């Protein structure tokens, strides 16, 4: 039996919004699971049902072998880090961390020990006497994490905890969260709509769309083997290029080129997906790109251009290569790294 | 430059306002330190006389009323008990009412709130006879509880607390819940400390409100023992200087409570933390 089990969990809000549809999944002990998906897809709702902050309309949730559908949030032994931190404004940092322990009737000495340990781990020992309003965004973030860690709960839930931080701090905190989780080893679920965050943090990733899990797997699995056009477009940055085409007898025709021996028996209109990083320049390549725009990131160049009817086609090459606006490139797809999707429903067919 | 000028100008207007309000009070105070004959022959005095101690001690210890059962000191005690009781009870009751209205899944909570709020349109004076009959059924006529209870539920204070609770983000409740706080703990550990300044402000409002009651105490007490200061102002016999002295003294408790609590009071009204 898994540590956390969701069985056909459904959420319908009182106003009729169906936010989560019959979702089933398992999270193993110590695993770092990430929910990723566009805004409004139901990530927070799912997380809040696990925390007990929303009622479960249908289905079951088991945590550590116990059915928790009807267990009060205060008894579930889960900790949550909110997007806006939700620190207790009238308590100093020490009491913010200690409050949950006090409610569990832990002795004063033990509380002090645990709080000091957590504070040390998060490097907030100096701020223990300050009120949250006297801390910077990053420090508040740490206090929020500390409040979760100090209780050693069964599971950590993070709802977009990094989205209020600036870009640099985000990357730093991302790293720290990952390190911390590995050190503490507590099962965690992390919600984000940032796919880079998702890829870097996750042991496993659930890509959610419209209240459904589109795909569940390790980040690399999902990157290499997206099951649908939605997942393919969502994971990977810059985004995968999508071209219209027609597949007939294992031959794919698209935007002025043909691919033979496609490993698919599908016949009909398709979408061809190619990742910008899966192409390279050759003399007589498949794809002819006329360059409109070059974004130089230093390590890489992102080349945007036109192939036949498709605008803003993206190609990624090393930053050392110098490519000018207006030039024409000839590209090949590396190692048959392309994806074919059924145009009618977006499902992968190759 | 314009701001500087306009701020000086508004200060000037404020100063004028303060003078208009203070001068009559000063006249009464200054007059209360003279002998009655000076006031009777020369009118109100602008400068202090030398009878301060004499006039004020006389008022404090003078046994007034028809049955000579009441002193000014006792009236102050009565008023203080009544005002504090009203302030305490109405703050507690409105804190809790607002808590229930905002945080509990009460059906038609908004409607209920507006029903409570409408009671502002029906002040005690309008429903004074039914209220009296309730108090007399409960045997509370001529008692401190009789003075306090009918005015110790405040729709205004409920409104203030409710609006304040509504500004508290839901995440606070949620993370408190996950930290193991139950209904009662959330109230005591979060809402009460967070609304501390507003509690103080409401306490002052209700204290002054209770202190200023006149019609209700007259009705519900027949024994002179329960006379309050405001009733005493009307009933007071004796010379004019003593009346003046009593008027001045009657102003002290509300002013004192505002001075003591003013730093919270101002914060509470303007809600900056
Ligand atoms: N209290 C509510 N009542 C009714 N509908 C709601 C409620 N909360 C959320 N929804 C709806 O449920 C759907 C899922 O919302 P949810 O908050 O889970 O999205 P999300 O994936 O977390 O999005 P975001 O990335 O923007 O936070 C949305 O369509 C939203 O409008
Ligand atoms: Mg969300």
Q: Which key phrases capture this entry?
A:
heterodimer, A: 350 residues, alpha+beta, Rossmann fold, OB fold (Dihydrolipoamide Acetyltransferase, E2P), 2 domains, six-stranded mixed β-sheet, five-stranded antiparallel β-sheet, 24% helix, 35% strand, globular, B: 273 residues, mainly alpha, MetI-like fold, two-stranded antiparallel sheet, 2 strands, binds adenosine-5'-triphosphate, binds magnesium ion
By DSSP, the count of extended strands of chain A is: 20
Order of strands, widest sheet of chain A: 6-7-8-3-9-10
Beta-strand content bin of chain A: 25-35%
Structural class of chain A: alpha+beta
- Please give the alpha-carbon distance between the first and last residues of chain A: 34 Å
Oligomerization category of the chains in this entry: heterodimer
Helix/strand-derived category of chain B reads: mainly alpha
Could you name the CATH class of chain B?
Answer: Mainly Alpha
What's the helix-strand series of chain A?
A: EEEHEEEHHHEHEHEEHHEEEEEEEEEE
Radius of gyration of chain A: 24 Å
Please identify the top-level CATH class of the largest domain in chain A: Alpha Beta
Number of DSSP E strands of chain B: 2
Round the mean pLDDT of chain A to the nearest integer and report it. 92
Gross morphology of chain B: globular
* Biggest sheet strand line-up of chain B: 1-2
Q: How far is the first residue's CA from the last residue's CA of chain B?
A: 30 Å
Named at the architecture level, the CATH assignment of chain B is Orthogonal Bundle
CATH superfamily membership of chain B, which one?
A: MetI-like
Bound molecules: adenosine-5'-triphosphate, magnesium ion
Helical proportion of chain A, percent range: 10-25%
């Amino acid at each position: 039996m898994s540590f956390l089990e969701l069985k056909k969990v459904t959420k319908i809000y009182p106003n009729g919004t169906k936010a989560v549809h019959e979702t089933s999944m398992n999270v193993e002990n110590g695993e770092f699971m990430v929910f990723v998906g566009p805004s409004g897809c139901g990530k927070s709702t799912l997380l809040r049902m696990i925390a007990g902050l929303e009622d479960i309309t249908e289905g079951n949730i088991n945590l550590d072998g116990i059915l928790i559908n009807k267990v009060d949030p205060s008894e579930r032994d889960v900790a949550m880090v909110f997007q806006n931190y939700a620190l207790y404004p009238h308590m100093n940092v020490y009491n913010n961390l200690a409050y949950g322990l006090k409610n569990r009737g832990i002795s004063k000495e033990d509380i002090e020990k645990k709080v000091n340990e957590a504070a040390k781990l998060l490097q907030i020992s100096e701020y223990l006497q300050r009120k949250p309003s006297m801390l910077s965004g990053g420090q508040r973030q740490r206090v929020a994490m500390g409040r979760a860690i100090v209780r050693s709960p069964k599971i950590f839930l993070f709802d977009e905890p990094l989205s209020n931080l600036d870009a640099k701090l985000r990357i730093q905190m991302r790293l720290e969260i990952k390190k911390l989780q590995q050190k503490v080893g507590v099962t965690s679920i992390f919600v984000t709509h940032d796919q880079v965050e998702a890829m870097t943090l996750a042991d496993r990733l659930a890509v959610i769309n419209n209240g459904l899990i589109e795909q569940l797997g390790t980040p690399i699995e999902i990157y290499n083997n997206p099951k649908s056009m939605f997942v393919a477009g969502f994971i990977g940055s810059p985004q995968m290029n999508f071209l219209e085409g027609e597949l007939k007898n294992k031959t794919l025709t698209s935007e002025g080129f043909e691919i033979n021996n496609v490993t698919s028996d599908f016949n009909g209109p398709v979408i061809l997906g190619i990742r910008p990083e899966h192409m390279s320049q050759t003399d007589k390549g498949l794809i002819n790109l006329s360059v409109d725009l070059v974004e130089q990131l230093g390590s890489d160049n992102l080349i945007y251009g036109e192939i036949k009817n498709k605008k803003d086609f993206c190609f990624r090459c090393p930053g050392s290569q110098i490519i000018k606006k207006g030039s024409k490139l000839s590209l090949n797809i590396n190692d048959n790294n392309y994806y074919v999707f059924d145009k009618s429903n977006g499902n992968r067919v190759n | 430059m314009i701001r500087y000028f306009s701020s000086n100008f508004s200060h000037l207007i404020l100063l004028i306002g303060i003078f208009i309000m203070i001068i009559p009070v000063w006249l009464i105070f200054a007059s209360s330190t003279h002998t009655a004959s000076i006031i009777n022959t020369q009118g109100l005095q602008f400068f202090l006389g030398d009878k301060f101690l004499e006039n004020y001690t006389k008022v404090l210890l003078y046994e007034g009323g028809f049955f000579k059962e009441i002193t000014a000191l006792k009236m102050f005690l009565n008023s203080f008990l009544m005002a504090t009781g009203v302030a305490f009870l109405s703050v507690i009751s409105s804190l809790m009412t607002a808590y229930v209205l905002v945080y509990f899944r009460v059906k038609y909570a908004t409607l209920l709130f507006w029903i409570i709020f409408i009671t502002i349109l029906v002040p005690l004076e309008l429903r004074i006879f039914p209220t009296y009959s309730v108090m007399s059924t409960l045997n509370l006529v001529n008692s401190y509880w009789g003075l306090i209870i009918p005015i110790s539920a405040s729709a205004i204070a409920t409104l203030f607390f409710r609006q304040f609770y509504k500004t508290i983000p839901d995440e606070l409740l949620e993370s408190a819940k996950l930290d193991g706080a139950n209904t009662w703990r959330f109230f005591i550990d979060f809402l009460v400390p967070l609304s501390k300044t507003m509690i103080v402000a409401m306490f002052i409002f209700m204290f002054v409100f209770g202190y200023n009651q006149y019609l209700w105490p007259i009705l519900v007490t027949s024994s002179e023992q329960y006379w309050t200061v405001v009733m005493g102002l009307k009933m007071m016999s004796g010379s004019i200087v003593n009346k003046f002295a009593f008027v001045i003294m009657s102003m002290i408790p509300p002013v004192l409570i505002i001075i003591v609590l003013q730093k919270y009071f101002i914060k509470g009204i303007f809600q900056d933390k």
